[in-house]
Amino acid sequence: MRSTMFILLWLLITVHGGSLSRHKILEVERKLKYLRRHSLKTIESEDGDIIDCIDINKQPAFDHPALKDHKIQMTPTHNSAKEDVTSGSRTSRNGKNSKSGKMMNESLSVTSQVWQKSGKCPKGTIAVRRIRKRELLKAHSIEEYGRKKPSFSHHQHGQVNKNLDSFVQLKNHSKAILFTVGYRYLGGKADLRVCNPFVEKDDEYSTTQVALLTGPHNDFECVQSGWAADGSKKSGCFDLTCPGFIQTSNEIALGAAIYPISIPGDLPYDPYTNNWWVQYGEKTNIGYWPPELFETILYNAQSVEWGGEVYSTTIGQTPHTATQMGNGQFASVLSFSSAITRMRIHDNSDVLKIPELVYDYSDEYNCYDVWLMSDYIDDPQFYYGGPGRNPKCP
Q1: pLDDT tens across 135-185, in order?
Q2: Domain presence at residue 58
Q3: 151 lies in some domain
Q4: Total domain count for the chain?
Q5: Are 141 and 18 in contact, with CB atoms under 8 Å apart?
Q6: Is the dihedral of CA 328, 114, 63, 284 positive or negative?
Q7: Full domain range(s) for residue 56
Q8: Using CA atoms, how far apart are residues 394 and 392, in angstroms rounded to an integer?
Q9: Which H/E stretch holds residue 221?
């Protein structure tokens, strides 16, 4: 099992699969040939991945019909939001060094991907993890391959729902999250500690992400960035398989394995071009979602969400899935469970702020739980996760 970096545009799409047949095999072969047609260089990674260096102007994003005449924006034209003064603090309120400061120092190190040990993609190209034939054959259909299953939004009738008791758990999903509402958000940011959770079955996954959401619970749009682990070691639309996301970096391959350390991730909005950017580390722009893809999240988001999610067809059933969330431990600062730190929001000001009003929530507290530590420290830390199946979650 391994953890991979992903980005996700979610437009709440439903698809239907089919059975394996000669027709599907031919369809898979055509798809693979099509995806590799613009590869200028191939890198074989020690973990078994193959990375194709593809001409940036011929990347999969432009297969989307709305982007035929799109001109690539290489860097954000506007990213004036600066870290607020509290973000630089390395001490708690009692004057002693805080764990928050240590974690932030750790997060500033450059996260690496395994394939980078074997080579580099030249300028003018992007790094794309090659999909294997066996991965596509496992999917119910080519269109469904790797799509993250629809989750829920805490918005109802266009308004943000703050009543946690009214949350309805979606079938086959379990979330443990922290979220904030009340502004029109232009970005969200956090450091995500990368874990390697156990995933029980091929069709299950466990993710940790920063997300921006807008729209009612049954018709919403969402952009996400984070890491994922799945049983079949595939990423699908967690990467560039589905057209739409425009990648600009030749250093990061979405869907490829990452070292198990913290990822500083950011989802800033560019008001001059209406692009939603994905930033990684302190300086790297991975790429962006162009405005042609959106209807309701065009200019801002209604909420920002941080946390984990598990997908399994045995969630809410007995026996429950044993797929873990985070590092598989319940939320606790004492047990070194999974943590999300340096959580920031970008509202209409030019400052990245610590969110003032936040709400924590878990679908299944006996399986995966949450805990926000905010007292006596300058920078709140959000702990989440769990083992899935256990004596309290049979």
Answers
A1: 777 766 666 665 666 555 554 434 445 555 545 677 899 999 999 998 899
A2: yes
A3: yes
A4: 1
A5: yes
A6: positive
A7: 4-67+104-385
A8: 6
A9: strand 221-230
